[in-house]
């Protein structure tokens, strides 16, 4: 069962509106706010950039994600009186009440956001978000924006890796809600693993609020809750055609069980009656979409013959079974055996659709296991991944940062002795330059005031080295290019709609297809280059020198 | 700055009331619900157990946590019409409308929860939660309850490990909000890392909603946003005593800078004026709680002398500086150097409190680095940990499961061929047995109907082996014992208040102190034993046999 859903109710639901509350922030944002305000600097125009320093999981790329949640957060941003009262309780008792009035009046009507669209491939040091507005306010936004972008981009990238491994045909189901960091972690994971390339999620709320296609089967508890047919009050099922009287599905099933066991050389006494009764109950509820979970007792001696008996009983009434699921053991090997038995039975019992019944697998599947399950000879159709997509165990955080790049139009820079933590000063523009084959050559960072690069025109650029420093200049001539940062939010107004989740998902797959296979490789990929314009490179030098020389 | 807070507003805030929405569940819960309902089994009395199979991180223990969120979830559990409408859109179009009426009428008034109190040490296979009620409903609760318990217990346990490493004196600040799985992941992390033994969190919302003490300093952006004093509109500060005229703190600071640099043999020209102006601005906002972030430019040549200049200027006005923070480089080594300079200056400038100014450190601190920072000669006072507490990188999910143990009073069991995934049948009671020294000997699982074990009376028990199987019986005589599962929620009513977060935090520390040091060891600890009663052990054998023999 897998149903695409329109983005239902998203706008109607007040809980869905605010992605995070304003106080979901670090206390130091509040203490700094007070200090900015005391210094009379609250309204100074400032710009921050949100970026990461290294792509996660050793990949050459990151998928930009989380922007839709940032927009919901910014539009609803407003401190309630209770919030301000709470802040007063943690600040010094003699804090000027006018500061709290200032906080109470804050909203995002003076904030502008430029961002890379969701689903864009993003690279180190190229801003995902440029946030400009009054210094005090855009400082306050740091933590919630990081919180909304960091994990969304991480899990989308993780999902994209899993999709690359699985190839385009295997269906991938995200089912990690129970292992996520609480309710919202689960919702975020489901939303952005779909954006990254999964087909569906088990998370019903993600279906309701975000339009993610939802899918599901049944659990062992359902199977083990049955001990026999006597527990079911209903056993009659009408034929699919609507023609003819209803029949007792348990009687049909018992009769088919004998035939199945005889044909496969199994002992009917070894099959579990409770399991079969559970399958019959599920089939009665979903005659058009019957699925069996095969491993509550013994897959080959009980689950499989029971499934076949019910499937053939359904076939007799004109229905088609939908699938089976395995949740333990050697999944690949069992899928081969099951497919081979499906084929034999399809032919022997003359039920052709039986050979193509979907085989779904789950059980702590990681990249390595997925690689086996995605092998060209694999008979697995659908792969459910929970923990290993949701928790991103290879690297459970992306490490985006939010750094001040200008105040009052003057470039700022952090010049710590840890060179990797140094930042690039100034308000920037970013372009992706392409070669004649439509493949991206590099991302170019330049100052926002510079004229954009031109297609067909030679440029001198300064590639960033891995440590965030710079190396020697080079020249190149892009055949085409695109600006990476779009103005989504201007002075408090949305000025471009956020594409639907499905559109961003399609963009992600399209962008990935432009990378070379060496760049897409999951281990030791060829790095993607990011470079500075001549002018930005020069500014970097001058800000560094002026600091070394002292003020 | 670190302020303990009462649990403010928790009850008043509607958003804080429902910990999760009913649709935050896996779709298969809904499909199973329909199948149970169709079979006429929706209201059959059933019991599920929520437990884990292995303690996380290689620890011998887990801290039970998340119960308070489960209670909030259960009390508010109710499907809204829009929820039911959404479910109708993903179920077959011919689904009986009476099923949706049944869903619409669901609440937890027939649900009973027995649970281990928050902050209890919990061990493998001993239920954290026993959930009984109507089969359809308690099945539906699976995913949200797992979601609320799994991560809460994981992060509390992770925090407890970090507290064991840090020892009782170092202050631990959780600051991982920006690296959490979205807003709620951050809130959950802050709440339960406090429960696990941290002192405070940077997360303001956790302070507001959960009463977690909040703490914070300042960020590099604040420092780099200043280039000089001209940016500040206010520079005057009144003496702490209130006696005497305000003085210009920038003038005092400049004068102290000369003395500091002269005494320490530093060049005043190498100090960064913007950094100093930022410190002055912060000091003007927080004269009683001035803190300096030292590594925006150069710790030893700029951050430290600038901090000292401002601190001594404040001292002249009768204030005491609160602390410094380091966020890069060799934290331990720098803390030693800074402390030694604080001592020299305290003595030279006759400002005794200066030598005890708090040194806070952060920068991707993990267990290994924390172990160094907690060394007895370490001069570090406060340690901020973000990613490594929040994301639990050593094991990012706990793997709690939720298994059906009885229906209509009959024990159920999953008997998969994967022996580790087999479950223990029947509704159970659990006791912790203690020896004469008050140390726990083992946790005993028995059937709920059995009489409780008695102190001083010999018992025959069957220890579980690591794989979840059982081994040979043994006898023992507990000197004292306590029941582990308490009825918190009975037929829809809270029947015991959930202790405050601070009380649960204290319980966790007390429980940990009862473990032997071999059991508390973080690597290769001595395992803690869990055993079955004679009767439960016998039931296990009989359920296994009856299944092998077939129905």
TrEMBL record, chains A, B:
MF terms in GO: metal ion binding; nicotinate phosphoribosyltransferase activity; transferase activity
PTM remark: Transiently phosphorylated on a His residue during the reaction cycle. Phosphorylation strongly increases the affinity for substrates and increases the rate of nicotinate D-ribonucleotide production. Dephosphorylation regenerates the low-affinity form of the enzyme, leading to product release.
The protein's required cofactors: Mn(2+); Mg(2+)
Domain annotation Nicotinate phosphoribosyltransferase C-terminal: ranges: 428-539
This protein's pathway: Cofactor biosynthesis; NAD(+) biosynthesis; nicotinate D-ribonucleotide from nicotinate: step 1/1
Catalytic activity: 5-phospho-alpha-D-ribose 1-diphosphate + nicotinate + ATP + H2O = nicotinate beta-D-ribonucleotide + ADP + phosphate + diphosphate
Residue ranges annotated for the Nicotinate phosphoribosyltransferase N-terminal domain, each copy included: 23-150
InterPro entries reported for this sequence: Aldolase_TIM, NAPRTase_C, NAPRTase_N, Nic_PRibTrfase-Fam, Nic_PRibTrfase_pncB, Nicotinate_pribotase-like_C
Keywords: Ligase, Magnesium, Manganese, Metal-binding, Phosphoprotein, Pyridine nucleotide biosynthesis, Transferase
Domain of life: Eukaryota
PANTHER family the record matches: NICOTINATE PHOSPHORIBOSYLTRANSFERASE
This protein's name: Nicotinate phosphoribosyltransferase
Species of the source: Monodelphis domestica (Gray short-tailed opossum)
Gene that produces this protein: NAPRT
């Amino acid at each position: 069962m897998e149903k695409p859903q329109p983005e239902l109710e998203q706008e109607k639901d007040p809980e869905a509106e605010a992605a995070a509350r304003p106080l979901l922030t670090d206390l130091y944002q509040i203490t700094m706010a007070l200090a900015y305000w005391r210094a009379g600097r609250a309204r100074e125009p400032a710009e921050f950039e949100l970026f990461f320093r290294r792509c996660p999981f050793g990949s050459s790329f990151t998928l930009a994600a989380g922007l839709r949640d940032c927009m919901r957060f910014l539009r609803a941003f407003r401190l309630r009186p209770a919030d301000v009262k709470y802040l007063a309780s943690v600040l010094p008792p003699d804090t000027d009440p006018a500061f709290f009035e200032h906080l109470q009046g804050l909203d995002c009507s003076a904030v502008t956001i430029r961002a890379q669209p969701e689903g864009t491939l993003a690279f180190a040091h190229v801003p995902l978000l440029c946030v400009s507005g009054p210094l005090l306010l855009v400082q306050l936004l740091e933590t919630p924006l990081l919180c909304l972008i960091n994990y969304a981009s991480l899990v989308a990238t993780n999902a994209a890796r899993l999709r690359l491994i699985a190839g385009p045909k295997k269906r991938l189901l995200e089912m990690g809600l129970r292992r996520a960091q609480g309710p919202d972690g689960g919702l975020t994971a489901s939303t952005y693993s779909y954006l990254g390339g999964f087909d569906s999620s088990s998370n019903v709320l993600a279906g309701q609020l975000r339009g993610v296609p939802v899918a599901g089967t049944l659990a062992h508890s359902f199977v083990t809750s049955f001990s026999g047919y006597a527990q079911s009050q209903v056993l009659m099922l009408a034929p699919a055609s609507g023609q003819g009287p209803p029949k007792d599905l348990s009687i049909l099933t018992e009769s088919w069980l004998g035939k199945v066991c005889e044909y496969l050389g199994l002992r009917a006494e070894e099959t579990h009656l409770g399991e079969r009764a559970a399958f019959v109950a599920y089939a009665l509820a979903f005659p058009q979409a019957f699925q069996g979970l095969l491993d509550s007792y013994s897959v080959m001696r009980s689950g499989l013959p029971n499934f076949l008996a019910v499937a053939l009983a359904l076939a007799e009434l004109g229905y088609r079974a939908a699938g089976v699921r395995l949740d333990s053991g050697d999944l690949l090997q069992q899928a081969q055996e099951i497919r081979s038995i499906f084929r034999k039975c399809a032919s022997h019992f003359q039920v052709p659709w039986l050979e193509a019944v979907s085989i779904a697998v789950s059980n702590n599947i990681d990249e390595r296991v997925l690689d086996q399950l995605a092998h060209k000879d694999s008979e697995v159709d659908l792969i459910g991944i929970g923990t290993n997509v949701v928790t991103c165990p290879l690297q459970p955080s992306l490490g985006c940062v939010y750094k001040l790049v200008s105040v009052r139009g003057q470039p700022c820079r952090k010049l710590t002795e840890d060179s990797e933590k140094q930042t690039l000063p100034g308000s920037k523009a970013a372009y992706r330059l392409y070669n004649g084959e439509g493949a991206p050559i590099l991302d170019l960072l330049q100052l926002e005031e510079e004229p954009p690069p031109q297609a067909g025109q030679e440029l001198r650029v300064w590639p960033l080295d891995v440590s965030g420093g710079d190396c020697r200049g080079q020249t190149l001539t892009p055949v085409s290019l695109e600006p990476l940062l779009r103005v989504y939010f201007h002075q408090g107004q949305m000025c471009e709609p956020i594409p639907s989740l499905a559109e961003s998902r399609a963009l992600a797959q399209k962008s990935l297809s432009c990378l070379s296979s060496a760049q897409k490789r999951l281990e030791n990929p060829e790095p993607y280059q990011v470079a500075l314009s001549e002018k930005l490179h020069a500014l970097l030098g001058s800000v560094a020198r002026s600091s070394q020389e002292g003020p």
